[in-house]
Amino acid sequence: MYSNITVHRGLRISRHAPSVSHLFFADDALLFFQVYPTACENILSVTHEFCSVSGQMINLQKSFVRFISNTPEDYRDYLSSTLRMKSCSSVGTYLGLPVDLGRSKCKEFQFMVDKVIKRLSSFASLSLSPAAKLWSSGKKSRGLSLTPASVLHLPKGMGGLGIRQLRSFNLALLAKQAWRLIQNSQLLASRVLKAKYPGLLSFNPSFTSNRPSWGSRGLLEGGGVLSSSVAWKVGSDSCAWDTSLVRHLFPESVASKILGLDRPSQKFDDYVYWKFTRDGSFSTKSAYTALLSHNSPMDPSFISSAWWKFESSCSFCRCHFEYVDHLFRDCSLSRFLWDFFPWDTGPTPDTLMPFFDWFSEVISNFVKSKNWEALDRLFGFVTSSRTWILRGDPQATYEVVVGFDGAWDPGNHNAGTGWFFQELYSSQVVGGGARASMATSALHSKLLACLYGLRHARRRGFIHVCLLTDCMRIPQLLLGLGSTDISVAWILQEIQDVLCSFVNCQIRKVSQVLVAKAHFFATTARRRDLLFHVF
Q1: CA 201, CA 203: separation in Å to the nearest integer?
Q2: Top-tier CATH class for 386-534
Q3: 236: which DSSP letter?
C-alpha cells in the first residue's frame, strides 16, 4: 500500500517511485515516515485513533523504531522517547531470515551455515553403517564415492536419488518471482522496482544502474530464465495470413508451422506464455525440470534398469496381472459392473471359460433371446462410451448426430477435417463435408473438424445435436475439465461461441469405427485430393 497524504509522507527509493507509507503482515505492521517530530506526533495520533475504534491495544514492549544510519544518537533517543518505543539497529528476522541486509551477505546468513554444519557434525557420533556415511569425507577420513555427484540430482526413475539441485531450484524460485511481478504490474513491488530499474521487469531484463541491489540482481537471474522459456501466443488484427508472403520469406518447414498456428477469428492482442506447461502458466516444478535437464544432461550409463520397467498389474485392483480376461471379466470392479446385467441365459462371469469363448457365447445368447437392451449395454461397457452434456437438457431429443474427425501430417503440417450428419436411430448419412487446412497438432485438426461441423449443422438449421468423437481430450477441453491447452486456446473459444447458438448439445466418446466416415473425409482432405466440399 502507498500514500500521497502530506501529513504522513512515506519513503521513496527513487524520484518517480510511489511513496510507501506502511506494509501490513499477518499480525505485524511496518510504518515508514521521515525523521521529524511532527511525523512522530502524527503516528501517535493515528495509532491512538486505531485503538479507540478497534478496541485493541498496541504492545509497546514488542514495538520498536529503527532509524537510518546518519541520524544522530541524541536525536534518536529524543524521537524514540516521544514514540515511547525502544530504538533498534535492525528490524530482525521474518520467518527465520534476516529482513534488512547489509553489504556482507555471507555474514548475514552465516548462522544458517553454522546450523547445517552442527547438524552434520552430530552424525559422526552415531553408529552408522558405511553406506550411511557415504559423504562423510574430511581431513582424516574419506567417504565412499560410488557414483558422480550429478547422479544425485537425477530423478529416481532415471537412476538418481531425486535430491534437489539448490542452484537450479533457487533459479526456479527467482523466475517465479519475476513472472509474478511482470504479469501483475499493479503490485506495489512491481511499481517500485519498475521506477528504480526500468529494464528489470521484462522478458529480456537489463540494468541501467551501476550499483543494483542484491534483490534486483536475483530478479535479473530469474528474468534470464524466463527469457529463454517463454513464447508468444499470436493474436489477430482481423486479417488473414498472406500465404504467398509467408512462404516467400521463410523456408517451407518454418512457413508450414506459421500457417498452421492457432489464430482467433476476432481481434486479440498477442501475449506471452510459459512453454513448459500445457496451459501456459508458470510453475516452479516445470521451471526446475527445464533447468535440471539443461544443466545436467542425462548420462545413459547411469540409467537404472528399473526406469524401463512398466506397471504390469491391473489398473483397477493392483492385485493381479492385467490380462484380458482379468481386466474385462475377473477383476473385482468388472464383476461389480457385470452384476447389473440380466443373466437369464448363457454363461455368467464366474465361469472358467476362456474370455473370448465366453464373450462370444454371451453375445450369441443375447441375440437369440432378442435382448437388445442388454446387448447395447454390453457393447457400451466394452467400448467405454461416455456422454457429456455441453448445453441444454440431458433428457432432450436430438435431431441429428454429428460425427467429426481430423487428420494431420507432422512433416508439412497439412491437415484435413471431415464431418458427417447421421439420423439418430439409423446409419443413414444425411449430410457432411470435408475441408483442407493447416494445423499444429492432431488435436488441433480434430477441433477444427468440430468447429466446421458445428457451423455446417447450424446453417442446416439443426439446434439439437449429438457430437461423436474418438478423442477423450476434446470433451475434457470443451467442459473445462483439467488444465487447458494453450496451443488450441483460440479454436476452443470459437467452438464455445458456436455452441451458444444451439439449444441442446451433447458429446460422446466413441470408438474409431463410429467416426470412420469422418476420418475418410479428413484423410482425403489432408492428402489434398479434396480441398473443400459439403453435401
Answers
A1: 7
A2: alpha beta
A3: B
Q: Which residue has the cell 535492525?
A: 90
Q: Where are the alpha helices (DSSP H) in 351-390?
A: 355-368, 372-382
| Cell digits of residue 316 | 483397477
The pLDDT, as a whole number, for residue 479 is 87
Q: What is the pTM of this model?
A: 0.70
- Residue 324 has φ and ψ, to the nearest 5°, of -65, -45
Query: In this structure, what is the dihedral angle of CA atoms 255, 257, 260, 266, given to the nearest 10 degrees?
Result: -80
What three-state secondary structure class fits 181?
Answer: helix
Written as nine digits, the cell of 51 is: 485503538
- Please calculate the CA angle 147-151-157 and round it to the nearest 5 degrees: 120
DSSP reduced 3-state for 117: helix
- DSSP letter assigned to residue 261: S
Kind and range of the H or E run holding 417: strand 414-422
Give the H/E segment covering residue 81: helix 73-83
pLDDT tens digits along 108-153 = 888 888 888 888 777 665 655 555 555 555 565 555 555 666 677 7
In terms of Cβ atoms closer than 10 Å to its own Cβ (0-12, 13-18, 19+), residue 19 is middle
- Lowest-pLDDT range of 155-159, 284-288, 290-294, 359-363: 155-159
* 179 φψ region: left (φ > 0), alpha (ψ -120 to 50), beta (else): alpha
How far apart CA 521 and CA 516 sit, in angstroms, is 9
Rounded to whole angstroms, the Cα distance separating 415 from 526 reads: 5
Q: Domain-by-domain residue ranges, the chain?
A: 22-94, 324-382, 386-534
